[in-house]
Amino acid sequence: MKRVDLKIVLLGKEYGGKTSLLERYLYDHFHGDLPYQNTIGAAFGAKKIQLDDKQITMGIWDTAGSERYEAMSKIYYRGAKAAIVCYDLTDSSSFERVKFWVDELKKFEEDCMIYLCGTKKDLVQEDRQCRKIDYHTTTDYADEIGANLFETSSKTGECVRELFTQIAMDFVNKYVPSSKEKNEDLILESPGKKSTFCCSS
């Protein structure tokens, strides 16, 4: 069994649902009825997921959403292979902050896979008038930047596990060579072996 480490960072505006998303995934908890506590700097959690013969260990950084911690957040998304950029479906201004974080990632971590995550879906399901961010606007933007899009509810758990599973699958497909690919590389690189590829001048 092969162990692979995957660094994920959560970014987004304050009160955007990042901490609740992480707690639902890691511990299957939702503390929505408790007084809100700001994340200071960043919080960290880890979880293992099994994909075929690979055990993926996810290290997940939940960064503070307050603008005064933005400079500090760069420390935590450095080297991240995936970023979940969260926005609150009931807060139109939170989606504007998404664009800021996407620009930051494109500038400093261009190989980082980006996932847009609309949070608090349960609220807009209960009352459609609560939705302040048009779904088609978000899908168009996701297509524009080449990102996956999920709408989640940390209260009900809807699409939370699916989001992180998709990240793990995409990571393996992009960064972890299969056994077959490794064997082909060995054949191509071994002395005395003829390459199956050729070119003509």
From TrEMBL:
Pfam families: Ras. PANTHER family: PTHR47978. It comes from Limulus polyphemus. It comes from the Eukaryota. The keyword Metal-binding does not apply. This is Ras-related protein Rab-24-like. The keyword Nucleotide-binding applies. Belongs to the small GTPase superfamily. Rab family. Keywords: Nucleotide-binding.
